[in-house]
Amino acid sequence: MDEVEPDLATAVRRADLIVVAVPMDAMVSVLPPVLDATAAHQVVIDVGSTKQALLAALAEHPNRGRFVAVHPMAGTEHSGPEAAVSGLFEGKTVVLCDAAHSDPDALRMVEDLFHALPMRLLYLDAADHDLHTAYVSHISHITSFALALTVLEKEKEEQRIFDLASGGFESTVRLAKSSPATWVPIFRQNRLNVLDVLDEHLHQLQHLRELLAREDYEGLTEQIQQANHIRKILP
Amino acid sequence: MDEVEPDLATAVRRADLIVVAVPMDAMVSVLPPVLDATAAHQVVIDVGSTKQALLAALAEHPNRGRFVAVHPMAGTEHSGPEAAVSGLFEGKTVVLCDAAHSDPDALRMVEDLFHALPMRLLYLDAADHDLHTAYVSHISHITSFALALTVLEKEKEEQRIFDLASGGFESTVRLAKSSPATWVPIFRQNRLNVLDVLDEHLHQLQHLRELLAREDYEGLTEQIQQANHIRKILP
Predict the structure, then answer these.
(1) CATH number of the domain at A5-124, please?
(2) Which of A1, A20, B89, B204 has a CA 20 to 30 Å removed from the CA of A151?
(3) Minimal C-alpha gap between A1 and chain B (Å)
(4) Residue A20 is inside which H or E element, if any?
(5) Which CATH superfamily is domain B130-233 in?
(6) Cα B140 to Cα A116: distance, rounded to the nearest angstrom
(7) CB A229 to CB B148 under 8 A?
(8) Do B175 and A172 touch (CB under 8 A)?
(9) What's the mean pLDDT when you consider all of chain A?
C-alpha cells in the first residue's frame, strides 16, 4: 500500500463506471488496485491498445468479472485532456476483448454505453485483437515515425519542409507527432506481432526499391495497382 | 504531324493561358506541340510534380519563354475531372521553376494568377525542386503504397481492415489509392532522388526494428522524441 491508495479507493467508490486511460505500462500496475477497490455493483474499463499482457495480469484477480476490456478504434496524435475531440467515437468501431470473462451485467452496461454513442461493437479474443491492431494500427505509427525521421534527416532546411508539405505529406507524417509515453509501451507489449508486420513492410519497401532501381516500370505499375486495392476496403 | 495536331492548335489558339495537366511521361511529349502552336501573347503552364526532365526537353524550344513551369503543392489521391475540389489551392504553396527562363510578361501573368487564389509563391531551380519534392512528397507515396501492400498481404480478412481501420491508419494509407498512371512517371523522372531518400527511409525503419528486436526501449523513446520534432515544423 502506498500513500496514493486511499485517494484512489475514495475516487473509485463514487463512480458507477471507472474508465482507466493511461499508457499501457502504467495500465498493468494501475488496474489491479482499482479492481481491489471495486464493489460488486461497479464496472471498470480500460481503453488501451494492447490486451494480452493486461488480461494475463488480471486473470486471477477476484474482481476480474467487474472488468471489461475495450479498445475504441479512434483517437488523434495529441495527448492530454486539452486534446479532447467532440464526437470522436461516433460511428467508429470499439473492440470488446474476452467478453465472456466479464460478468454479464458489467458487459451489458458497457455495451449499452457504446451502443448509445453510437459505436460499432466488435468482439475479439485478446490474441486476435493484438494481432489485428498490429496490422491495422501499430504498423502505421512505425512507418510514420520512420518517415518523419527520414525527412528530418534528409531535409536539413526546415523552412523547405514547411513550404513544400502538401496534404499528402502531412497525412502520412501526422502520427509521428504521437507521444513515446503512449507508443513505446504498446510496441513493447505487442512486440512480436509488430516485428512480424514490420518485417513484411520492410520486404514490400525493398521490393518497390528493387523495381525502381532496375527500372522495371511495369512491375512498379503492377505493385501500385495491387496497393490501390485498399480503395475497395476503405473507399 | 499526326491528325490530332490541328485540333490541338485550334484549342490552343482560343486561350490566353493554356494549362497542361497530364501524367509526366505524356507531359514531355504533349508540351512541345502545344508550344509550337503558342503565339507571342499566350502563356503555357504545366502543373506537374517533376521538372528536370521536362525543362531539359523544352530547353531549345523557340517558344520556351512563353512557358512557365509550376507545381502547386496540393492535390488528392483521386484523379480525373470528377475529383475536382473547390478551394484546393487556397493558402498552399506553388513552386515556380527556373523562372528566369520565362518571358517577364508570361511570368507576371502566372504570378498574378497564383497570388489571386491566393497561393504562396516559391521560386526554385528545377534540380532543387526535384530534390525537395522527393523528400517531402514522393517518399510519402512510396511509404503509403508499401503500407497498403503490407496490410493487404498480412491481413487476409478484409472485413477486419474495414472494422479496425482508425483515422490514423486511413491517413497513412490514403495516398496508396493514387493512380500508377500519375506516379510511375514521377518516380521514373525523379528516380535517383527517390532512391536516395528511400534508402534513408529503409535505414530508419531498420533502426527502429533493431531497437524493438533487442528491447532497447530507451533508444526507441529517443527516436520517437526525435520524430516528434516534426511538430515544430508542421504544428
Answers:
(1) 3.40.50.720
(2) B89
(3) 28
(4) strand A17-20
(5) 6-phosphogluconate dehydrogenase C-terminal like domain (1.10.3660.10)
(6) 38
(7) yes
(8) yes
(9) 94
